[in-house]
Every structure is written in structure tokens, then in C-alpha cells.
């Protein structure tokens, strides 16, 4: 199961709850030119799963936004008691 979690009242990250453990997936981040600068592996995992998964997207991001996302993810991780990223990174991101 995957669901959106909020940060400061806005949809922000994906919480994946699965048999191998729960973890957070950061938002998709696109730069001012529209290129995906963070989250390409998330998009690939969703495509491979064949499922429709709502993903938070941050548009037009610069370095200051990337730093804010890192801080927000750390706060969410601590609050929810789950790691950022899958428990076994060698197996890659999998959506249950």
C-alpha cells in the first residue's frame, strides 16, 4: 500500500507500507526547465508496477528547494519512525 503524507499541510511524500518494511519516498522534483532532477527511480518503479499512484511533484526547483526537501524528509522520517528509501536499497524501490 502507498499513500501520500503531508508536510506543512501540503501533499509532500509517499509512504510505502509493505511486507518488507515501511519507508518514505521523496517527491518528484523538476527544475525550472522541467527536467526531473530527483525521483526518476520513483517514476520507473511506478511504471513497472502498472499501478496508478499519486505522486507529489515540486516544479521549478532550485538548490534552496532541494535543501528544504531534504530537511522536510528528515522531519517526516523522524515523526513517522520510518526510513527514507527502501529497507534494502540493493533490491530497488518496489511498490506493493
Q: What does this protein look like?
A:
This protein is an alpha+beta fold. Helix content is about 30%, strand content about 30%. It is built from 2 helices and 6 strands; from the N terminus they run E-E-E-E-E-H-E-H. It has helices spanning about 40-50, 65-80; strands at about 1-5, 10-15, 25, 30, 35-40, 55-60. A 3-stranded antiparallel β-sheet has the order 1-2-3, with helices on one face. The chain has a 3-stranded mixed β-sheet with strand order 5-4-6. Strand 1 and strand 2 form a beta hairpin. The N and C termini lie close together (about 5 Å). The model has no long low-confidence stretch (mean pLDDT about 85).
Give a summary of the structure in a few sentences:
Helix content is 29%, strand content 29%.
Low-confidence stretches: none
Largest sheet: 3 strands, antiparallel
Output the structural class.
Answer: alpha+beta
- Total beta strand runs: 6
Helix content: 25-40%
Strand content: 25-35%
Q: What's the N-to-C terminus distance?
A: 6 Å
Q: Write out the strand line-up for the largest beta sheet, numbering strands in chain order.
A: 1-2-3
Order of helices and strands: EEEEEHEH
Q: Which descriptor suits the 3D outline?
A: globular
> Measured on Cα atoms, how large is the radius of gyration?
13 Å
Q: Mean pLDDT, nearest integer?
A: 85
Count of alpha/pi helices: 2
Amino acid at each position: 500500500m502507498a499513500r501520500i503524507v503531508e508536510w506543512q499541510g501540503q501533499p509532500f511524500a509517499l509512504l510505502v507500507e509493505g511486507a518488507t518494511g515501511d519507508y518514505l519516498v521523496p517527491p518528484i522534483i523538476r527544475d525550472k526547465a522541467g527536467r526531473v532532477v530527483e525521483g526518476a527511480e520513483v517514476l520507473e518503479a511506478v511504471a513497472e508496477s502498472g499501478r496508478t499512484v499519486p505522486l507529489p511533484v515540486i516544479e521549478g526547483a532550485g538548490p534552496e528547494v532541494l535543501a528544504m526537501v531534504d530537511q522536510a524528509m528528515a522531519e517526516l522520517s523522524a515523526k513517522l519512525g520510518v526510513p527514507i528509501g527502501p529497507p534494502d536499497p540493493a533490491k530497488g524501490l518496489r511498490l506493493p
